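This part of the workshop introduces the protein records we will be handling. An example says more than a description, so a record of this kind follows:
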Amino acid sequence: GMSMCEFTLGQTFSMLGGLKNENISHIPFDAEKSDRSTYIQLLEKSSTQSRVIVVCAPTAVLRDILLTAEDLGMLSEGEYVFFNVDLFSTNSKLIRPWISETDSADKNEKAKHLFETVLTISAFSNNNESFSEF
């Protein structure tokens, strides 16, 4: 079956020309089974075709992808633009998505800087009672 990301972004991909458009690529990956070597492959393949990279993955995975992209020199010159379609985070996680409890303060600070360069698109969730009653 289709993942939540494929379902959400599939229409956008199709509207942009899908497989007929040589300027876009669709590179699916299993976020639960991916690691740094997977991200290197994805980013290197993407960089040969695109300068705009749209990622739809949990925040921790996006964080790892951004850190890998930085190590590959993809974020230092502004040559690449990253969009994040966040379907997974709670509002509290969206406030500080760069934080990893298992990483050092320095690495979290580096990740914070990288997240500042990403445009994140997310669904708004409001727990306000008057909003719910509306």
